[in-house]
């Protein structure tokens, strides 16, 4: 039995509320159970310096957690004067994932920055940030299309992410914190709407895993992402 009482292949409740901030070109609040992430997308009409004159656009991301997103207060990274290695790794992952669903030529020489701020954490924050970040990006690109700033849709596919793991000897979908903290194996799976893999992060935390178990986790991830793609389409 999972701590939440969910079935092995059951996702947490998912909701995506759009247009939650006044100024951002695209925004949403994604809730995956008790994990809540605010995602905003900002259009900058110039590309980063390393792309100047290339004709290519860029999508990047920043990620952070509010001090009381968890059960104890975390010090703001700004007050420490630097980002943690975890934060840097997660925001690079979000950026890589979102770029996989974008035609950078069609985007033109501009940058879209996707900010993902965790309001409340209960496991799977990076996965929620990727899934919600795509919605915010989609809304921002819709504005470019409506304004005639791009001649074709730069977004080539949906992008979503979900965590899976081995908990109490069983392969389970969409880990919450209680499961993630005790899982023998956990992984994050980032997929496109066409079922292509962008990235898989898997590690044996307490015990090793077999190739068969990895395949079963991937099957769960594909089913979970299919549900996330449905939520993304409903939100847009």
Question: Could you describe the 3D structure shown?
Answer:
This protein is of the alpha+beta class and 236 residues long. It has one domain: Ribosomal Protein S5, domain 2 (2-Layer Sandwich), CATH 3.30.230. It contains six helices and nine strands; from the N terminus they run E-E-E-E-H-H-H-E-H-E-E-H-E-E-H. It has helices at residues 77-80, 85-99, 104-107, 125-147, 177-180, 211-235, and strands at 14-18, 26-32, 35-44, 58-65, 111-120, 159-167, 170-173, 185-192, 197-204. The strands form two sheets. Strands 1-2-3-5-4 form a five-stranded mixed beta sheet. Strand 6 and strand 7 form a beta hairpin. Helix 2 (85-99) crosses helix 4 and helix 4 runs parallel beside helix 6 (211-235). The chain is globular and about 55 Å long. The mean pLDDT is 96.
Question: In a nutshell, what does this entry contain?
Answer:
InterPro entries: ExoRNase_PH_dom1 (IPR001247), ExoRNase_PH_dom2 (IPR015847), ExoRNase_PH_dom2_sf (IPR036345), PNPase/RNase_PH_dom_sf (IPR027408), Ribosomal_Su5_D2-typ_SF (IPR020568), RNase_PH (IPR050080), RNase_PH_bac-type (IPR002381), RNase_PH_CS (IPR018336). With 236 residues, the chain is an alpha+beta fold.
